[in-house]
Write a structure and sequence with these properties.
Length: 219
């Protein structure tokens, strides 16, 4: 369990320290933005791999019994979570994770009209239902952390984008996006992005037992 806690601590530090604007600006100035992004991506992937290995090796300490409805809830919630993650990452988005600002149209925001932070909320949903359905200490440490980051992430990202875009431009774009009805936003998202989310969901369901060693519905 110590290795998992250490990995989680490093993951937190790797994401919270660069979020401090003067620190990030100094690193970008010293390394150049392309080198900084490459280094940050490599470190993030390495720490994620460490967390996965540490989680797999952690002892099983039950905190609450897992019952059938918890597994079913995870299976159901992971479908919209997968769509939010894929559509969010594949949609131009000046507010959050995604392709960035280029090509974004506030009048046709797509999934961003449902929530400004679709990928972040998708990850938060994923973490929350997995913490509940597993019911052990290691899962609560890992998924609880990711869930908390998912809940805190939107406010942090809004603050960053407000600083980058300027308060007036941010407020104007936010108001434009908010006027889009959710059904219209889903239509604007595009069938290929929504289909991509369901393909991810199907792959997760099919490979869960093989990769993780646990069948989503038990058995």
């Amino acid at each position: 369990m110590t290795d998992l806690i250490l990995a989680v601590g490093v993951f937190l530090a790797a994401h919270l320290i660069p979020a401090i604007r003067p620190v990030r600006a100094g690193l970008v100035r010293m390394m150049g933005e392309p080198a900084y992004l490459i280094a940050y991506s490599i470190i993030s992937l390495a720490v994620i791999a460490w967390m996965v290995l540490a989680y797999s090796a952690a002892p099983y300490i039950e905190l609450w019994p897992t019952v059938a409805w918890m597994r079913w809830l995870a299976v159901v919630v992971m479908a919209p979570a997968s769509v939010l993650i894929v559509a969010g990452m594949a949609t131009p988005n000046p507010f959050s994770l995604g392709w960035g600002r280029q090509g974004f149209d506030p009048a046709r925001p797509g999934i961003v009209g449902v929530t400004r932070h679709p990928a972040v909320w998708g990850l938060a949903l994923w973490a929350g239902v997995h913490a509940l359905a597993n019911g052990n200490q290691a899962s609560l440490i890992l998924f609880g952390l990711l869930g908390i980051l998912g809940l805190l992430g939107p406010a942090s990202l809004d603050a960053k984008r407000r600083g980058a875009l300027g308060a007036e431009a941010f407020a104007r774009m936010k108001a434009d996006v908010a006027r889009t009805a959710i059904p219209a936003a889903l239509v604007q998202t595009g069938l290929w992005r929504i289909a991509g989310g369901f393909i991810l969901y199907a792959a997760l369901m099919a490979g869960h037992d093989w990769v993780i060693g646990v069948a989503p519905l038990g058995g």
